[in-house]
Amino acid sequence: MTTRRFGLSGQPMAIIALCMLGVLVLLAVLAPVLWGEAAVKANPDAIALPPSAEHLLGTDKLGRDILLRTLVASRLSLVMAVVATLMGLCAGLLLGAVPAVLGPRAQRWFAGVINTWLAFPVLLVAMLTVILLGTGATTAVIALALTMTPSFARLAQTLSSRVGGSEYLAAARMLGVSQRRQFTRYVLPNIAEPVIVNVTSSIGGGLLALSSLSFLGVGVQPPDFDWGRLLSEGFGQVYNSPVAAIGPGVAVVFAGLAFSMLGESLAGQLRDRENRKALSPRKLGPAPVAVEQAATPQEEGPVPLLEVDGLSVSFPGPDGWIRPVQDVSFSIYPGEIVGVVGESGSGKSVTMMSVAQLAPAGAAVTARRLRFDGDDLTGLTPAAAGKVLGTRVGVVFQDSLTALNPALRVGTQLAEVPRVHLGAGRKPARTQAVRALDDVRIPEAERRAQQFPHEFSGGMRQRALIAMAQIGSPSLIIADEPTTALDVTVQRRVLALLRNKCAESGAAAVVVSHDVAVLAELCGRILVMYAGRVVEDVDIALLPTPERLAHPYTRALVASLPDLDTDRGEPLVTIPGEPPDLSRPVTGCAFAARCAFATARCESETPVLTPHRHGGRVACWHPQDDAAGHEEGEA
């Protein structure tokens, strides 16, 4: 831990605290060496002397210098406090942070253990430990560690819950990174700073608690001595020589202030940095299951790389299950690039993340058929999914800054795939990571691999994500809005890079976006989603001729896209109304309330995807393809 890392170099209170700690450390190291013998050697000629020039704090009942004993006791007092705090920290991290990589069931179980532990009074736990193990320094340390464990566990549980839902940890699971490595390289580094702050403050409190136990006679036992023991001995002669209790008391206060001031300084700096820069159980009913339907006859032709049939995703809500994705079916063939478009909240990202086995925590994913390259993906455990999809599916997440682990260098993160799945050593994996960065045209790839994600620009982070998705030579790349927050020039570069990498490797790709224009430059066909369903599957070549598009929603999306011929004096075309609230059941066609062609049938019956004359599929009771479009298509 350094002052530079926490930005403490300019804080007066932090500097004072560090100086005070420096004094304590010097005493702990040097005092037993310099005055250890004098502190324990009895002197019958100097029993219970008052303060003098020779003995500044006087002597005790055996003639030993109280000041020297106070200085020598620094080592045992500090070591006991630090060891007890570290023991409580390790146990707390195991209880609070490890469940973040074990899954929701383990999190609930460990949360119950922590809550039960916190319900016991601290003094009761300490006294019970003393009764079971007997008095002594070791017992005092164990008792203090047991009282600190639940508070550290609750802190670690709160901090790790945020990391457990992050995209970079989800990516690590998909890559098949072991749970031990997830904990040590992904969870711990991202909760380290708040934990260190809490540990620093806890050492001061632990020092006071241990001194109290020794003062009561259940801590350190003679001939050993710490500040609490010396305070107890001095209290026995307080009426004859009050100064005898001052030395140990001042030492306890001095050390407690030093640790508390440093902890407060670290906490204040952490709060300033943050300023700059769990779902309760309910009665939800049975979990959703896949709705069985009659098998759809398969057309002869190429075998799809990815086959999705009847995919639905549900989340627990206040009044039951909420289904943002319902009965989605599509296929992706080798080598093709398919776009998924729709308004925000249409279920695009949830669908693709569920296909990649990266559904958010608490989601219930069902499907009649979910196959990738011949492997059935339904019902896979996270470990099995990592083995099946680890190098065969690459994911480019939406937010490049949160998708990359901020505590690891970019090159280290790219090297995870060859190290975990290909068994490569550290140096070969690093070489592959640098080559992957160079392939996506990141300048000075060797140097950039040593940098952290925050040192990259937005476009460079996005290219690094593409490199990470490509490094395992996957058969399918899922890009979840890869051009989010990028300017137009960088967007074109990122899209061209993704297209070229797919062409070089022969990989298929699914690109999620809410921008039809972005997909028009990249994809061969698009899936149009609305309110959690695919409403049209259409060739991208038909977008310039909206009259050949069948679904009213697809036509409305294309019409709302301005081009060079758009009259700037007229307001832009918009889609009237708002998307439906998916927290409530939707009857019939979800677009009916916004559609000019809706009838009573649209409001009562849900349309299903059926083949259309434009070569794709559409889910609409009244597809809007005019006669001219029909004649042109037939010709």
Strand content: 5-15%
Radius of gyration: 33 Å
Count of separate DSSP helical elements: 23
- How would you sum up the major sheet? 8 strands, mixed
Mean pLDDT: 83
The general outline is elongated
**What's the β-strand tally?**
13
Unreliable segments of 5+ consecutive residues: 1-6, 275-282, 294-298, 627-635
Structural class: alpha/beta
CA distance, first residue to last residue: 74 Å
Structure explained in plain terms:
The chain is α/β, with parallel strands linked by helices and 635 residues long. It is 49% helix and 11% strand. The protein has an eight-stranded mixed sheet with strand order 7-8-9-3-10-11-13-12. Helix 3 (66-96) runs antiparallel to helix 8 (179-215). The longest helix has 37 residues, at 179-215. The relative contact order is 0.08.
Précis, in short:
By secondary structure, this protein is an alpha/beta fold. Helices cover 49% and strands 11% of the residues.
Which features would summarize this protein structure in a list?
alpha/beta; disordered N terminus; 635 residues; 5-stranded antiparallel beta sheet; 23 helices; disordered C terminus; 8-stranded mixed beta sheet
